[in-house]
Design goal:
By secondary structure, this protein is an alpha/beta fold. The chain has 11 helices and 8 strands. An 8-stranded parallel β-barrel has the order 1-2-3-4-5-6-7-8, surrounded by 7 helices. Helix 1 packs across helix 2 and helix 7 runs parallel beside helix 9. The longest helix is centred in the C-terminal third of the chain and has 24 residues. About 45% of the residues are buried. The chain binds 1,3-dihydroxyacetonephosphate.
Length: about 250
């Protein structure tokens, strides 16, 4: 069981083959910083190319369809992204939930099909601003997790990662206070132990995401129960992304 900090870049709908040089640079830097587990989730079109370039970093997808195959024009299944070289998939991102109407129930079926295809899963959760303002953020997030995660997962500690991404912090430059992050991650940990038992639930990594940058990464990654970061905008250049990874490794080389 790896307990290294886990720093994952979500490239979202960014990147053409010109970005492969950034992937190569991230991979080379990751080889020098083995205390941190580094991964990127490029768009579908780049998964195979990044996989071929990468010696050290993990490569994942940003979504998959719940069905294994069939007449679903424009969709991509879990086994397809696995075949392209993905080892994990990000599911339930707020941009999918909001922009594509994905419900908790749909996300759960995607989690099941991804696990069945041998992929690990990074399951995203996070509240909209009005829930935070109403003081209902914890209830909202735990309910998302309750409904988006299967009741049981064999080897949950190894196969699942949870990413807490408050929607109002994504791409805005705003972040919760460190105390707020600590409180939410503690609540998520409590839920994971309740759902998957102490042995598995206590080792599922909980990432923080939402405006993580090189200059706030050290503080955020130092918060209890923050096992890494899911990084959007700042993952698009090797320089800023690896400075975040470096902060996770406490700046020391392996
Ligand atoms: P930003 O780092 O750009 O805020 O995006 C976070 C995110 O949505 C990662 O999945």
């Amino acid at each position: 069981m790896s307990l290294r900090p886990y720093i994952v870049g979500n490239w979202k709908m960014n990147g053409t083959r010109a970005m492969l040089s950034e992937a190569r640079a991230i991979d080379r830097a990751a080889q020098r910083h083995m205390k941190v587990e580094v991964a990127v989730a490029p768009p579908f079109t780049l998964i195979h190319a990044v996989h071929r370039e990468a010696e050290q970093i993990g490569v994942g997808a940003q979504d998959c369809h719940p069905a294994a195959d069939g007449a679903f024009t424009g969709d991509v299944s879990a086994s397809m992204v696995a075949d392209a070289g993905a080892k994990f998939v990000i599911l339930g991102h707020s941009e999918r939930r909001e922009g594509h109407g994905e419900t908790n129930e749909l996300v759960r079926t995607k989690v099941q099909s991804a696990l069945a295809a041998g992929l690990k899963v990074i399951l995203c959760c996070g509240e909209p601003e009005e829930r935070r303002d109403a003081g209902a953020h914890e209830k909202f997030v735990l309910n998302q997790l309750r409904l988006s995660l299967p009741e049981s997962v064999d080897g949950a500690g190894e196969k699942l990662t949870v990413a807490y991404e408050p929607i109002w912090a994504i791409g805005t430059g705003r972040t919760p206070t460190l105390d707020d992050i600590a409180a939410m991650h503690a609540a998520i940990r409590g839920f994971l132990i309740e759902r998957f038992g102490d042995a598995q639930g206590s080792v599922i990594r909980i990432l923080y995401g939402g405006s993580v940058k090189p200059d706030n990464a050290r503080d955020i990654l130092g918060v209890a129960e923050v096992g890494g970061a899911l990084v959007g905008g700042a993952s698009l250049t090797a320089d800023s992304f690896m400075n975040i990874a470096l902060a996770a490794g406490d700046g020391e080389d392996a």
